[in-house]
Amino acid sequence: MPVQGLHRAPDADAGPVVGLRDDLAPAYQQIQEAVARAIATGKAVTGTLRVGFSSQWAGDAVIEAADVFRQRYPDSAVRIQEVQLTDPFGPLRSGALDLQLTEFPVAEPDLVAGPVVFSEPRALMVHARHPFARRESLCLEDLARTPLVAVSGDVPQYWLDHHYPRCTPEGRPITHSATAAYWQEVQSLVATGRGASPVALRAAQYYARPGIVFVPIHDAPPIEYGLIWPVNGGTARVRAFVETICEVAA
Questions:
Q1: Dihedral pair phi/psi, residue 217, rounded to 5°
Q2: Coiled-coil ranges per the record (predicted)?
Q3: pLDDT band per the 50, 70, 90 thresholds, residue 20
């Protein structure tokens, strides 16, 4: 026989617990969605990614990132190759590369200019007997006092003007005495006194040789190195490598 009047008292703590659960639900859902995206991305990152670089220090950054990338995505592989100065965008446009770490600026309608990965101070590479070789540093106006060796080839004019200017900030003309298709030619022309060449200061660590001196340019903006890829080439592999190399460089 049921006992009249006997019933369970309401749980006084139920309200706060339910409220906390409701408050946490959106955050929990976001975590679940983030995990699901990470799993999906990991499954999508397979196959071979072809990455180019334009300088040895950029190559070092790519190689270091590739090691981390392979650990994160064991079903993927990374092939790395150097890109020549005379055709900086050709391999990307031909499909030989998927991604490239190179000197900015890049303003091409068929290429995406992604994040800047790192930057380097500028210097002037001069012959060891050049008057500038005894200086601790130079300014941009000094470029009007010596001929420059420039790069030839299929290189955009805006890129050349940025790295091999034809006038100083005050408008003084800068002479270009010779052009070179490859970096080794630039070094040889400088070493034989045919001209000077703007470079990243880090080049002194990689290309030191008799007859050449690297002098910092104290008022020049740094050279920025960023990632570029074709407009239609933003695959899961590319996005994952961009994220990886930015993390490694940082």
A1: -105, 105
A2: none
A3: low
Chain centroid, CA 108 distance in Å: 16
Which pLDDT value is given to residue 26? 73
Q: Give the integer Cα–Cα distance in Å for 207 and 244.
A: 28
Q: How confident is the model at residue 178 (pLDDT cuts 50, 70, 90)?
A: confident
User: 3-state DSSP call for residue 173?
Assistant: strand
Q: Which domains does the chain have, with CATH numbers?
A: 45-119+224-249 (3.40.190.10), 122-221 (3.40.190.10)
User: Strand 76-82 relative to strand 197-200: parallel, antiparallel, unpaired?
Assistant: unpaired
For tokens 């270091």, name the residue.
64
**Beta-bridge partner residues of 215:** 124
The model's pTM is 0.80
| DSSP 8-state assignment for residue 144 | G
pLDDT value, residue 40: 45
**68 in Cβ contact with 45 (< 8 Å):** no
